[in-house]
Amino acid sequence: MCALKRTAALFSPEDPFGELKKNPSLPAGLRRRFNDRVLIMTTSECFARCPHCTRAFILGKTETVDTEEKLEKCVQYVKKHPEIRDVLLSGGDVLTLSNAAVKRLVDAFASLEQIDIVRICTRALVDKPERITDSLARLLARSGKVWANVHINTAAEALRAAPAAARLVNKGIPVSSQTVLLKGVNDTPEKMLLLLRKLSAARIRPYYVFQCDPVAAIEKRFGVPLKKAKAIEKYCAEHIGGLSLPRFVADLPSSLRKTPLDLL
Ligand code: SF4
Question: Which residue has the least CA distance to atom 2 on ligand 1?
């Protein structure tokens, strides 16, 4: 049995990556699985309602960092752990918040010397591109530490995201894409290769292609067999340069790293 199947039983929709179970004393709204980074649940709203969303169960329900007091507790936690150098502003989608709230969150972490990267995790480039204004891009670029991470699954979405990506990249903000390999959506070598080409043309770095999380209902509807996923990975590696080639991985709650398909 592959690791993906073995760990399926560990997934719970309320705590999909076991972060709360492992660290029940973390500040409200802060999640930590890995040594050098933390995730901040900034909001439970999202521009998208992806049917394969592992966090769908908690969208609209989870505790978020929505007060100065909660934000301060998260900042203090990070300061007490100097090994943390990367903060993900996620949720939900941090860009559903106002510019003032986004600025407060970015500044709170980017101002810490130990922090090298503040990641904005967003679907706005695809689902609400008008949210990426020049003034927002300027605001995000000020610290020199912000990166944007977008969830893009098809070539059509990459094309939709391209103008907003350009507004960010032109201000010096690196933009990367994470894709989920989805049955019936992008699970052929040709569709995946086209997606990677369109992302690269938009100056969006393809970063990860994830196997669908092993939540039973999601996997049944969207899961792509491992053998097929490996064949897609091989085809892409043979048809596109390394700069445009993402890592094909699974995100397993029991693992301290994103797991390459070869290890499954
Ligand atoms: S963009 Fe991400 S958080 Fe929002 S619904 Fe889709 S998978 Fe879930």
Answer: 53
